[in-house]
Amino acid sequence: MYPPVGFHFRVDFVGLAAGTVDSHFQEVSGLATELAVEELVEGGENRFAHRLPNRARYGNLALRRGMATDSKLQRWCEDAILHFQFQPVTVIVTLLNEEHEPLAAWRFERAWPVKWALSDFKAQESAIVVETLELAYSYFTRVQE
């Protein structure tokens, strides 16, 4: 079996009545976690500091797509960023195979928007307008099928 391709995926917002346009993105990034390390200095030991594992840290989940003109997801972002009304949701990113069946999925708990941005408008280029949505979340786990 070949390794999966990274261009066939779906994003679902559980708890947010979003339409089909809100599940298609051209890029998802930020699926990463790292273990924080705490250094403990021992008196009289100058050669090294003890490095102890601490809790996991997560960055933001970034979603990019061509700008949608009528999107419940955009209204959700506006409510949080402009009106300070937060409705945390669960986000599921699913990697799909060539038959559109799930290969792997990751569940992001209590996600909420922290940034929304549009790409630059440039008259000399014929590019589509891309919107970027960054989400903070509590933690993520791999969904077992």
Describe the structure.
This is Phage tail protein. Pfam families: Phage_T4_gp19. InterPro entries: CHP02241, Phage_T4_Gp19. The chain is mainly β and 145 residues long. It has a single domain, classed as Hcp1-like (Pnp Oxidase, Chain A), CATH 2.30.110.20. It has 1 helix and 9 strands, in the order βββββαββββ. It has one helix at residues 72-81, and strands at 9-14, 27-29, 33-40, 50-58, 61-66, 89-96, 102-118, 130-136, 139-143. Strands 1, 2, 5, 6, 7, 8 and 9 form a 7-stranded antiparallel sheet that branches. A two-stranded antiparallel ribbon has the order 3-4. Strand 6 (89-96) and strand 7 form a beta hairpin.
Given the structure, what is the number of helices?
A: 1
> How would a textbook summarize the main sheet?
7 strands, antiparallel
Give average pLDDT, whole number: 89
Contiguous runs where pLDDT drops below 50 for at least 5 residues: none
The CA-CA distance between the termini, in Å, is 18 Å
Which structural class do you get from the secondary structure elements?
Answer: mainly beta
The share of residues in helices is under 10%
The dominant shape is: globular
Order of helices and strands: EEEEEHEEEE
- Structurally, the number of domains stands at 1
Kindly provide the radius of gyration, computed on alpha-carbon positions and rounded to a whole number of angstroms: 19 Å
Look at the structure and give the CATH class: Mainly Beta
Percentage of residues in DSSP E strands: over 45%
